[in-house]
């Protein structure tokens, strides 16, 4: 992909410029996570959008969900989760479910959302409890 490059300056500034290099799946996820927890959560979705589709794996999606939850937007994290479930290539990991559950326990709809996650775990064969 020869679109944009993200440059982190020592002063804390972030700039996006045109260059031809790829972050890689896990480096991209790490950058998303670090931006989210480094007082720059608005840049995390932008970095996610810059990743090519083949680098948007479970780690990048989980990092983005974690950013939304830490920024106080668990509903956005759930929308991302539903998007990953719609893409059959990406199967959420147990870490993804941990991130979502830790964020959802802070919301008023915890029981309803936790029930949806449990159904998803049962459907993927990762949980064998009663629904």
TrEMBL record:
Pfam family for this entry, one: PPR_2
InterPro entries associated with the record: PPR_rpt, TPR-like_helical_dom_sf
Keyword vocabulary terms for this entry: Membrane, Repeat, Transmembrane, Transmembrane helix
Keyword ATP-binding (UniProt): no
Sequence ranges of the PPR repeats: 57-91
Position of the signal peptide: none
Membrane-spanning segments: 14-32
Protein name according to UniProt: Pentatricopeptide repeat-containing protein
Record organism: Brassica carinata (Ethiopian mustard)
């Amino acid at each position: 992909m020869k679109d944009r490059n993200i440059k982190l300056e020592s002063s804390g500034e972030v700039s996006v410029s045109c260059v031809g290099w790829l972050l890689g799946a896990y480096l991209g996820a790490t950058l998303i996570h670090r931006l989210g927890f480094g007082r720059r959560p608005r840049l995390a979705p932008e970095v996610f959008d810059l990743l090519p589709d083949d680098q948007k794996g479970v780690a990048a999606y989980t990092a983005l969900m974690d950013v939304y939850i830490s920024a106080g937007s668990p509903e956005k994290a759930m929308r991302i989760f539903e998007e990953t479930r719609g893409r059959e290539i990406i199967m959420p990991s147990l870490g993804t479910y941990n991130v979502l559950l830790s964020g959802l326990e802070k919301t008023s709809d915890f029981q309803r959302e936790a029930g949806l996650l449990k159904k998803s775990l049962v459907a993927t064969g990762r949980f064998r409890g009663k629904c």
